[in-house]
Design a protein that fits this description.
single chain, 226 residues, alpha/beta, Molybdenum Cofactor Biosythetic Enzyme, Chain A, 2 domains, six-stranded mixed beta sheet, two-stranded antiparallel ribbon, 8 strands
Length: 226
């Protein structure tokens, strides 16, 4: 007897096929079926987590954006991605490269009811890139700063003590078709707590080939060990 399933961690919709099973070759003794049932135990073999339409806060950092020297390209991209899941932007702030101000804004968004907070800009290693420090200073638990995914290696994930995720998003999220954010977002919306081990597993299958015509999620990106 065999069971084949879809890859874990990807959204599905009504009437999608999740799994299939066959008896090999054609027949099986009832006793074997009973043993298989006993071996499987009482827990379901598959879990389907409903996606929540969450309110999110978006913080864009960068002196050049704050001072109006360049246009903020992050907000339209983030709104487009999150609107696919019916999420509502609760608050949006454009800030200079001031980590203390970013920390206060993150905490205020959470206090005001944001269920997720996303920070764009300031995620590299230049002296004025302060977003990781701003997130750390909120007191949130840092799960990772870095992910074995391309595009998306400079991804940061933290959780507040009330379970609100705070994400520091690398610049690739603004211009690449698919990135680490597309792999992480469904889990955030399903309230699946992401662990360091889960993130480490993304390395197998974590390379996007940046195809001329993107077929995600009907491709190998993100379909490794998860």
């Amino acid at each position: 007897m065999m069971i084949a399933t879809r890859s874990s961690g990807f959204p599905v919709k009504k009437d999608d096929v999740l799994a299939g099973t066959r008896v090999i070759p054609l027949l099986i003794e009832k006793e074997k079926m009973e043993r298989a049932k006993e071996t499987a135990g009482d827990e379901p073999l598959l879990f389907l987590h409903p996606l929540q339409q969450k309110k999110y806060g978006l913080i864009t950092t960068g002196n050049e954006i704050y001072e109006g020297r360049i246009v903020d390209a992050s907000a339209p991209v983030m709104q487009a991605k999150l609107s696919e899941y019916g999420c509502e932007m609760h608050a949006h702030a454009v800030l200079p490269d001031d980590h203390a101000r970013s920390t206060r804004t993150i905490l205020q968004m959470v206090e005001d009811g944001a269920e997720m907070v996303f920070c764009t800009g300031g995620m590299s290693v230049d002296p004025d890139d302060r977003t990781p420090l701003a997130i750390k200073n909120t007191g949130a638990e840092i799960v990772t700063y870095g992910a074995p995914v391309l595009p998306g290696a400079m991804f940061l994930l933290a959780y507040t003590d009330t379970g609100v995720p705070i994400c520091g998003l690398p610049g690739c999220v603004m211009y690449a078709k698919r990135t680490v954010f597309d792999l992480i977002l469904p889990r955030l919306l399903a309230d699946v707590r992401i662990s360091p081990a889960m993130l480490a597993d993304l390395g197998h299958g974590g390379l996007c080939l940046n195809c001329d015509i993107c077929h995600f999620p009907n491709c190998m990106f993100g379909k490794g060990a998860w």
